[in-house]
Design goal:
One of its GO terms (biological process) is biotin biosynthetic process. It is built from 15 helices and 14 strands. It has 400 residues and is an alpha/beta fold. The longest helix is centred in the last third of the chain and has 19 residues, at 294-312. It folds into two domains: 15-46 and 293-390, Aspartate Aminotransferase, domain 1, CATH 3.90.1150; 59-291, Type I PLP-dependent aspartate aminotransferase-like (Major domain) (Aspartate Aminotransferase, domain 2, 3-Layer(aba) Sandwich), CATH 3.40.640. Bound molecules: pyridoxal-5'-phosphate (PLP). Pyridoxal-5'-phosphate is lined by residues 110-112, 115, 136, 138, 179, 183, 208, 210-211, 239, 241, 249.
Length: 400
Amino acid sequence: MAPKLEATRRRIDALESDPSRKNSFVPYGIDRHSAQVELEGRKYLMMSGYSYCGLGGDERVVAAAKAAVEQYGTGAHGVRALAGSTPLHEELEAEVARFLGRESALVFGSGYAANVGTIGALCGPGDTVFIDKYDHASIVDGCKLSGATVTRFRHNDPNHLDQRLRAASPDGVRLVVVDSVYSMDGDIAPLPELREVCDAHNALLMVDEAHALGVIGRTGRGIEEHFDDTVHVDVKLGTLSKGIPSMGGWVVGSPDLIRHLRYHARPFLFSAALAPAQVGAALEALRILDREPWRVAHIQDQSAKLRAVLTEAGMRTLASETAVVPVVAGTDEQAYDYATACRRAGIIGLPVVSPAVPNTLARLRIAVTARHSEADIEFAGQALLEAARECRLIPATAAV
Ligand SMILES: Cc1ncc(COP(=O)(O)O)c(C=O)c1O
């Protein structure tokens, strides 16, 4: 064990050589009424949060969480199959299904659990899962635990998926799993082309909408709406911890699918139900999102503006077209330097380094939320460019 612990210590010590370079596990003081956080007495604009719809501190959501605690107490008292189901859990599942236009839904303890549980319940030895190279770790872990054969295809490359499906065994379940929006790149899966390939090879298509709910589609309903509801997904799943500011994961589909998951998804069967406060908050946030689609439009407008400012000045934002705006710095060390310079300029932009991303494409993962005002986004753009000039990522003369 010792060599492993020592290797971790050396790597983290090198990246965080002084306190101003420490970016992970920093206990930011959160002001739930703004997009600002506090650190050591100074306020910063948080530009790396995941609360896309800006509802984390919303009075209505907070009140709903409190009301749920008042009525049901703090814990769920067990797994859903035994003592853990309350009317509130069922209300949330009905709301998730309604919001996403499906007949049924199931809510898990987290998005991670939803992926692991769903893949494991649908596939096992003798089946094949085809995953995009950039799929989230919970999809990868779900595949490993399922015991199915796992095949990776190149990122957002339906032709490569086609080749992989041709080469694979025709027997058993063939499940293709992609993220709707990729969490580190902010690009969107090419759903129509993927659907075509799946249909040609008798494969099921599952999407993880973790970064899509509340973010893409005209009203934030995710990837099907983004493609004008012309393409159907077989299994849709996501989290209640990003656009919806709570905890939990969800799956929507046919009543048969949901019944199967209830009885076979192990993280659902063997892990406690969501606590009432989380359920109450998620339910209220979904209802607000339904009534306030301006949040989605705001995220889309402001992230497009931010991308334009950055790319015009010569920064790379890769193929981002969503609220997730990666700003490439280069090596892991450059990303840490850039994050530190951004902090000096007044914003928190957290670095994403290898092995999460290739070590030539280490970046700040910037995210635009409905909590950011237009002035916040302008400020963030200026700060990102000022820091980029300081780190020599762009010439000192680059336009702001
Ligand atoms: C694409 C994707 N799927 C699933 C998850 C897991 O969601 P949760 O945090 O609810 O476990 C995440 C979280 O980062 C994610 O980015």
